[in-house]
């Protein structure tokens, strides 16, 4: 903040702020509100990739075209997040002896992504963390009786907790 207030970055330096909009903290909000108006700045938002873009990056990094099923799996597993996709592909390139089309359901998860997931889970309140754990086991589509049985939680609490975290949930009647 001191350097920003004294114009350092307008004359000699560059500030790069990289953050996920869904994880903005009060100190970051304060820094942005106080300092960005004082500096020349450019805001660049990196959106999630489409399925086509996931296929393009995968082909570029691996040097061959993956099957449409693999592209769909990568899209589903990474949510189109460029960082997650790149980390997954990097791990495949450097630590997996199989071609990606031969992996089936065995896509690896890099240590970096495990750390991101662990960090995000730690920020959740206990009920939401339990609900996310149940959702990880049963998936995005489930029957209410299953969610209650697996999680020992009323399904309404699970759905409410996940939706509060911006994770819309579909559940099947039956």
What does this structure look like?
It contains 10 helices and 2 strands; from the N terminus they run H-H-H-H-H-H-H-H-E-H-H-E. By secondary structure, it is mainly α. Strands 1-2 form a two-stranded parallel ribbon. Helix 4 packs across helix 5, helix 4 runs parallel beside helix 6 (82-95) and helix 8 (126-138) crosses helix 10. The longest helix has 14 residues, at 82-95. The protein is flat, with a radius of gyration of 20 Å.
In short:
The protein has helices at residues 2-5, 8-11, 26-35, 51-62, 68-78, 82-95, 111-123, 126-138, 144-151, 155-164; strands spanning 141-142, 170-171. It has 174 residues and is mostly helical.
Largest sheet: 2 strands, parallel
Q: Compute the gyration radius: what is it?
A: 20 Å
Give, in spatial order, the strands making up the sheet with the most strands: 1-2
**Low-pLDDT segments, ≥5 res:** none
CA distance, first residue to last residue: 56 Å
List the secondary-structure elements in sequence, H or E: HHHHHHHHEHHE
Principal-axis shape equals flat
The average pLDDT is 77
Strand tally is 2
Helix content: 55-70%
Proportion in β-strands: under 5%
- Class from secondary-structure proportions: mainly alpha
- Count the DSSP helices: 10
Structural descriptors:
single chain; 174 residues; mainly alpha; two-stranded parallel ribbon; 2% strand
């Amino acid at each position: 903040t001191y350097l920003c207030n004294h114009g350092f970055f307008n004359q000699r330096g560059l500030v790069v702020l990289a953050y996920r909009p869904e994880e903005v903290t009060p100190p970051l909000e304060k820094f942005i509100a106080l300092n960005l108006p004082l500096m020349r700045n450019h805001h660049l938002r990196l959106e999630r990739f489409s399925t086509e873009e996931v296929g393009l990056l995968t082909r570029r990094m691996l040097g061959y075209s993956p099957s449409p099923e693999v592209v769909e799996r990568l899209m589903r597993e990474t949510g189109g997040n460029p960082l997650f996709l790149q980390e997954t592909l990097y791990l495949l390139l450097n630590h997996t002896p199989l071609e990606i089309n031969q992996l089936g359901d065995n896509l690896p998860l890099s240590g970096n992504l495990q750390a991101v997931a662990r960090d995000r889970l730690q920020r959740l309140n206990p009920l939401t963390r339990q609900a996310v754990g149940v959702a990880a086991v049963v998936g995005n589509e489930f029957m209410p009786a299953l969610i209650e049985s697996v999680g020992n939680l009323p399904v309404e609490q699970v759905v409410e907790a996940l939706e509060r975290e911006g994770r819309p949930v579909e559940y099947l009647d039956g």
